[in-house]
Amino acid sequence: MMRLFHCEFQGLAGFSELDLDNLKDLTIFVGPNGAGKSTILRVLRLAFEILNRKTLCDIPPSHRAWDRFEVATLRFRSGVISLPPKFAEYLGVSDEIVVDIVCNESQFIIQRICCGDNEMQFAQPQITKTKISEHIKGIENLEEQKIELAKRRHTQQAQQAPQTPQQIQQLNTQIAAAEENLRQQNAQLGVLRSVPVQLGSGETLILERDEVDSLLESLEFPQVQFVDTQLLHEEAIPKLITELLREKKGRKAQSQQFAETMNRLSHLLQSDVDVSEEEGHADMHINGVPYARASSGTQITLSFFGLTRLGEPGCIVLWDEPENGLHPTRRARLLNLMFADGRQFVLATHAAEFAPVFSENGKVFRCDARYDEQSTEVSLTVEHVADRRDAFLALEALGVHPARTLFTANVVIWVEGPTELLFYRHWLNPRMRAQGFIEGFHYTFMQYGGALISYLSIADDAQLESTFDLLSMCRHPVIIVDSDLKEDPNGRPPSDFLKKGAARLLSEVNKLNQERPGAAMFDWTEGREVENYLPESAIWHAISSLWKGYQDYSEKLQSVPLIIGQYESYEESLTKHFCDLHVTDASENNESDRRAKGRSIWGAGNKVEMMQKALTAPNLVEATLNWKCANRLAKMEAFISNVCAK
To answer: What is the pTM of this model?
Structure first.
């Protein structure tokens, strides 16, 4: 299995040079926004997609101009690299191989292959594989024309009409011209397929293009997997469930493997996990709840577990911001999964948990951007985090400052995940700014990650074992949860309808406020989830902004009001609305298997982007929010103002 240990890129926009040496199992890029972290991932993806074309020269894969390099040098290590006999004669045997790629907007060329001390350089320019294929297609068309002319000549000869000799003569002339054209085109094809090769010894070879492409095929470069979190939800979890059920039904060895996997998964999720199949429907339950109803952080964790367990072996996994939606404890456990996975991972992150600066199997690079006013250019740099000083600089690049990250802020507002963070920040910050209170100084936000609320505690006298004491970070926490109500509580106390972990925290807050009045605040949504606060207009604005196909169905979808009740699931209500109006992927003859169109865009796997777009809806003000949301915001504002004013 080949492993990338060094890569160097020249002619890359923003970088004077990009030289990444001694890469490990886990390579991490940290730094502020705009420092080039995501660009590096896309540059690596382009280089590997080129290698996996398995051809000497062709049109580049689709990419952004900013991500295109002029020359890339990639160095791999492996066991003994097996080459075709003809090339083993020239390149020898080694456990290292180097490949140079030259690229512009119209084509790429594999310029050099080096195996140990031996190398082969391929002359430029070369003809793309696409043009060779077009040339071959042209030859095939000429041959078909020649055959058609011969058929017509045969027909004319059979007719023996007075004009036949003249027609036959014309056809003979056309056939001769076609044969000459074919001869020329085949000769040109031979030239196109001819590849001059310069050996390290100085000797020059002439090889066939197919021979060179067969060499590239034999090298078995790693595939690249660029993680798309949205697709990961839809693909990885169902595949994982199918595989687990197969093991569960298997023989003793498979059953034992299943038990071990379930133990690892339960440890990772810090929850009870089970998989089952009833009437042909496979599902997974987290603490008795179907996984589809779990928090976004839980689904991301499940998706990644499926990726590490079922992904393509030997590939390089590129992942931009894997921390999104994950509680810090899960980030640490996912990091351990990556180290144990066996494949190489390259991450771009803002999370310190994904930056193990002193790990022997990991390597952290700090990215930075500098703006030159005179040249109006941005200069991007990448530096290895090699010692303690570098580690502190990397933490600063991640925004780790005592006044913010050690939470000397007066108030920490704990919300479930990124969707809630976007919502409450959008509405609270303007309220607080009007009073002179600034996020990050007077108050800040933190995500607790859904079900992981059960691992939080509020204990003024002592920190409970195996829990996370909120008061050790901030003396005045605000905890906001989704009520998850499915019906009107009809006066029932919150302890009856809140989830167990949330109800326990409410009890602890009440106890703390008896001892220290106004010390903490606990609140829950007036409806089922934070999305229930959004008016219909904001939801349609979000869908129309994200889903390209919306315009084709907008008139039908808005022909009747979209009704999302106070205690109804936002996603289920949308699904029902689409299905009731027959905006589905089902065929006319298969209505029993209807699935709403655009579900991957506006569904559970894309809640964060939906909220981002919904909050930009025209004319969206507090007064348009549902279920007395403004009253809830006023309560939070009053609490923060009271604490900060002390």
So the answer is: 0.59
